[in-house]
Amino acid sequence: MMITAEKLKEMQDVYKTAVSLRLEKNDRNEQPTVFDVLICGGTGCKSSGSKEIQRQLEYELAARGMLDKVHVVQTGCHGFCENGPLMIIYPGQFFYCRVKPDDAGEIVESHLCNGRPVERLLYYDPVDGKPALTAADVSFYKKQKRIVLEHCGRIDPEKIEEYIAVGGYAALVKALTEMTQDKVIEEVIDSGLRGRGGAGFPTGKKWSFAKNAESDKKYIICNADEGDPGAFMDRSVLEGDPHRVLEGMAIAAYAIGADEGYIYVRAEYPLAVQRLKIAIQQAEERGFLGKNIFGSGKDIMLHIKEGAGAFVCGEETALIASIEGRRGMPRPRPPFPANEGLWGKPTNNNNVETYANVAQIINKGAAWYRHFGTAESPGTKVFALTGKINHTGLAEVPMGITMREIIYDIGGGILDGKKFKAVQIGGPSGACLPEELLDLPVTYDSLTEVGAMMGSGGLVVMDETTCMVDVAKFFINFTQSESCGQCTPCREGTKRMLEILTRITEGGGSESDLELLEILARNIKQASLCGLGQTAPNPVLSTIKYFRDEYEAHIKEKHCPAGACESLASYIITDACKGCGLCARNCPVHVITGKVKEKHCIDQERCIKCGTCYTNCPFDAIIKE
Amino acid sequence: MSLVEKKSAYRDDSVPKQSCIDEILNTYKDEKGALIPILQHTQNLFNYLPKSALLYIADKTDIPISTIYGVVTFYSQFHLQPRGRNIICVCQGTACHVRGGKIILNAVEKELGIKAGHTTENLRFTLETIACLGACGLAPVMKVNEDTHGRMTEEEIAKVLAQYK
Amino acid sequence: MKTVSLTINGIVVKAPQGFSILEAARSAGIYIPTLCYHPDLVPEGACRMCIVEGSGAKTLVASCMYPVEEGMIVKTNTAKVREARRMVIELLLANHPKNCLTCRKNGDCELQTMAADMGVRTHRFDWGERKIHTFDASNPCLVRDQEKCILCGRCIRVCRDIQQMNVYSFANRGFNSIVSTAFEQDLSKVACTYCGQCASLCPTGAIVEKDDTERVWEAINDPGKVVVVQVAPSVRVALGEEMGMEAGSIVTGKMVAALRNLGFDKVFDTNFSADLTIMEEGYEFLDRLTKGGVLPMITSCSPGWVNMCELKYPDLLNHLSTAKSPQGMFGTVIKTYFAHQAEIDPAHIVSVSVMPCTAKKAECVRPQLRDSGYQDVDIVITTRELGRMLREAGIDFRSIRSVDFDSPLGYGTGAGAIFGSSGGVMEAALRTVADIVTGQDLWDIEYTEVRGLDRTKEAQIQMGDKEIRIAVCNSLGAAQKMMDRVRNGTASYHFIEIMACPGGCIGGGGQPVPTNMDIKKKRAEALYKIDEYSQFRKSHENPDIKTIYKEWLEQPLSKKSHQYLHTTYGRQKR
Question: What positions does the entry give for [2Fe-2S] cluster binding (chain B) (predicted)?
Answer without folding.
Answer: 91, 96, 132, 136
